[in-house]
Amino acid sequence: MTIFPMKCGCLRGFKVEGRALMIFAGPILTAHLAQQALSFTDTLMAGRVSATDLAGVAIGGSLWIPVSLFLYGVLLAITPMVAQLHGSGHTGETGPLVRRGLGVALPMVVAAMLLLRHADMVFSIMGVVPNVSLIASQYLKAIAWGLPPAAVFFLLRNLSEGLGLVRPSMLIGVASLPVNVAVNYVLIYGKLGFPALGGVGCGWASALTLWFMCGCMVMTIFRGRDYAATYCFDFSRSCGQEGSMQILWLGLPIGFSLLVESSVFALIALFLAPLGALVVASHQITLNYSATVFMVPLSIASAITIRVGHAVGGKKLDLAKRICRTGLLINSLVAIITAGFTMLFAEQIASLYTRDSQVVAIAVGLLYLNALYQVSDAYQIGAVAALRGYKDTRVPLVLILVAFWGVAMPLGYSLSLTSVWGVPMGARGFWISLIVGLSVSAVFLGIRLRRVQSNLGVKTEVDV
After folding, report:
1. What is the pLDDT of residues 320-329, one digit of tens each?
2. Contact 380, 442 (CB under 8 A)
3. What would you report as the CA-atom Rg of the chain, rounded to the nearest whole angstrom?
4. CB 332 within 8 A of CB 375
């Protein structure tokens, strides 16, 4: 007699938490899709110029993405910190905390700009084709000017999302898309008296778009009534109990985790560069599509971090567990749907990016492989996001490092570029290794999450 009511209660709990997560995830997804649309626009518009321009943007992006993701990852510590402060009734400490984040971001921005502006040395060492290397280097020199506004935007967006205010980043992301398209059109194809810059124009357009987004977010926080209690622009307020060291302590593992994952994709592009523009272009198409589809589970994961942070801050640990279970289930179901879609429409997807039949043929095979890892990818990003909500970031970094650099990268290199397993597979070998690496990561992080939740004394940081 008691079993049925318990099942009903369980299902009711999943329904309630699922609705709450989607309320957060919807605007975050729109913001992420708008952001990803910027990359899609660059890839699409550069591809219409030539395969060489597309390859140059792809190679340049292989460095820009990990560098910008590392910066974003470190500053992502603001989200769970703000969420727990807000959940525990200390909202007034969140704005001063964000200002401390500026001090953390500044030296990283300077170092990243220097790296991107001297990336031609990296391309020379990796043996990138000269004409592709030239476009990639100039692209990076242009987009590097977008790092300062990107850092400010990341900080303020993470503040807003940590408070549960997710609509501003959505609206700004949507507004930035037509700006990027317009500037791309002018600079890539040489309109309104500007020279035709080809793929390099994508870099300048992206930098200008980041300045636009930063300005919009600053005005939103400065003028919005919902942010008055944060004292973000009240410089007379002290930071509170958490400052720069806490941001670094929590954020550096997140940044390195994202760097580990993104650097694998970056190195794959660089390793494939000597195989020619067609292989690199097909890899870039698959990578860009994969990143676009990934925005759905990533958005749900961001909602998990916010909801878990609020629950842990309010010492509602049972609620935090239910949020995690619900989020991981939703992510897995979504990934099953997107994987099926990818398998059914692989050729049509590839044809959206390029008219080159050879590139399409290679990309279709890679898209099939991409579909096979979408479930494990969605699960592992949900698990690591839940762990961030608990402020557990150091052990997940080690687990991700083992999965990607201990398993995926060596396997991919041996499959793709050596005869250890038979005839070298080229790009296919790396994508096969990603299936294995992401599956290992999903298992490791799932176990870690269960261990964290089993510790009933969890408050802010879980140590091993």
Report:
1. 888 898 999 9
2. yes
3. 22
4. yes
Whether residue 136 contacts residue 54, with contact meaning beta carbons closer than 8 Å, is answered with no
**Residue 62 backbone phi and psi in degrees, to 5:** -65, -20
Q: Are 219 and 152 in contact (CB under 8 A)?
A: no
Give the residue carrying structure tokens 């919005």: 224
CA angle at residue 283 from 278 to 288, to 5 degrees?
125
CB 209 within 8 A of CB 176: yes
- In the numeric block, the tokens 């290992």 are attached to 440
How is residue 158 written in tokens?
Answer: 């993470």
DSSP string of 365-434, one letter each residue: HHHHHHHHTHHHHHHHHHHHHHHHHTT--HHHHHHHHIIIIIIIHHHHHHHHHSSTTSS--THHHHHHHH
Cα separation, 169 vs 157, in Å, equals 6
Angstrom distance (rounded) from CA 56 to CA 132? 5
pLDDT digits (tens, 9 = 90+) for 70-118: 899 899 889 888 888 888 778 888 888 888 888 889 999 999 999 998 8
The rounded distance, in Å, linking the Cα atoms of 173 and 135 is: 27
Cα 199 to Cα 188: distance, rounded to the nearest angstrom: 6
Helix (H) or strand (E) run with residue 316 in it: none
> pTM for the complete prediction?
0.78
